[in-house]
Amino acid sequence: MLSETQFTFAKGKTMPLTRPTFEQMQDIVTDLGMTMEPERIRDFMSSMEGNFQAYDLIDMLPDEKPQVAFPRTPGHRPLPEENPHNAWYVKSEIKGADTGPLKGHTFAIKDNICVAGVPMMNGSVTLEGYSPDVDATVVTRILEAGGTILGKAHCEQFCLSGGSHTNSTGPVHNPQKMGYSAGGSSSGCAVVVALGEADMAIGGDQGGSVRLPASYCGIFGMKPTHGLVPYTGAMPIESTIDHLGPMTRTVADNALLLEVIAGADGLDPRQYAPKPAKYTDALGMGVKGLKIGVVKEGFGFANSDADVDAAVRALGDKLKSLGAEVEDISIPMHLVGPAIWTPIALEGLQWQMMHGNGMGMNWEGLYTTSLLDAHAAWREKADELSDSLKVSMFVGEYFIRHHRGRYYAKAQNLSRRLRAAYDAALAQCDLLLMPTTPMKAPKLPDADAPLDEYLARAFENVGNTAPFDASGHPAMALPCGMSDGLPISAMLIGRHFDELTIYRAADAYGAK
After folding, report:
1. pTM across the whole model
2. What is the average pLDDT across 79-87?
3. Domains in the chain, ordered, with CATH?
């Protein structure tokens, strides 16, 4: 029974939880592979009462979650004429502190990141109608630093696409060419930043979702070291590859925003030992003395555009002319990286994001319980999930059911070998260089495109980006040219927690 003291903690909330029916318990016993006589099931039901009383108390107590500051309204869904690229989901101005390093700057927030009181759908009709009751840590930090949030930017359905054609409301269009992909999954963020509708944005990256849209849209996108930026309050895909990072038009803004959002918050177990730095110190330092390895295996894919490979090599030549040592380097494991990432991403997302209702279990971080409850409704509209999410679920579910999660486990073990291969290269070099995406932005697939084309546009561009989600290394997309009216992007990769050196090189290249 609950004690008087326990009831005092939950004063005024004494309604017990509903107990299971005999039929529900019978189904549980059967689903767990057991055979049990009805009377034995009833004996177990009686024995569980003490456990249920503990659940009664948990239900009665208030949740432990961060307080929300700074006034805001739910905002509004912009009409097509004020949102021609379909980049915004909701516009809602939230003004931060009167002073701070971000004062005077405006921000878009990817729509898988919680902003309390502002609708969030994470690209999917199955979550539409949900409004979070907490601010993500990155949102709080932006507001406390004086930034003004202008709203939520569209993303791909549950962030499962490197293209920009899977959002339930329709495709997000490239800022340079209507009808072309903006990249994914942080598609809307890249577009509103490239168009100047917001100064900066926070995107999310599990397979390249900050860097891919930055590549296609011609902006800077940093995937920081895993654990540097708290993921608290963002909807997870898979905890070991979840990242949040800044998306900006300039290197200086990118460094400034990372400076504000980096560091432990005490609520995210992904942050095992973050080492933030004053990244703006990198500006103006130049590249003299830096060693940069041009990774042979990052070029020359079957789907590579020749002009992309040439522009990235030209960036290397420019850095060499500015005083860096630039040499080719070979990392054969890089070609295995996408395969290592695949079971982690697909089995992991099916276990955590879908079966786990977006949050999963077995860690001590902040659980956004309102999001968990809202996302559980995906089962009621499963047919309306995007095909890019469906194929990911099918693969993940098959290997969980029929191979016991063995390949997820082996891929996690192999990720340490992948990390070591990059670390060995970075023991010889300060930075690695390769294209962000092998190609420029392709045309958006038609609404009735064949499944193979739809899926190709969703996953064809992650070969260079996904391995660094598995290895955790910081990696930044930076624009390095235009061809056929579309941006080309290079990617710089650094040692764990050495984002500052990436900014040194990016600033030097852009400053001359």
Report:
1. 0.95
2. 97
3. 4-60 (no CATH), 80-511 (3.90.1300.10)
